[in-house]
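Tutorial handout. Part one gives the primary structure; part two gives the three-dimensional structure as tokens.
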Amino acid sequence: MIRIVNLLEEKNLYLEKFYKLNEAELVNLADDIHDNIENFYAAREGLLKMVSKIDDLVEEQIKINDIDIKKATGLVKKRIINAFSIKNELVNLILSQDLQIISYIEKAKSSLIQELSEVNKARNVMQAYKSNRKI
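Part two.
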């Protein structure tokens, strides 16, 4: 049972890293800096893979040892409850961050579409001017 508790706590460490990674990137996005977005998503993906692997290990430990976490007692039960509580808090914070990230990305996407539209209009004006057509 202790192995499972340790895995749950380790999972929370990765979720905390995920949260901190998001926080750092939110600062960049707020400043309209998008240079690191690919690395950001790659790092997030790596952390999510680690969380998933830990979940798999927890499931494996439960099956191998035929453990019912609900039957935990004492300090082990407190650590499990604490680990789940921390996980829920981190997941909620991460979801909030993700909404902010999506908002910044949508804003940047809209700005880019508008800029491309303006470039296209300018190109059409230049082509009309070169060919002596009326617009």
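Part three, for discussion. The helical segments are 2-30, 37-65, 74-130. The radius of gyration is 24 Å.
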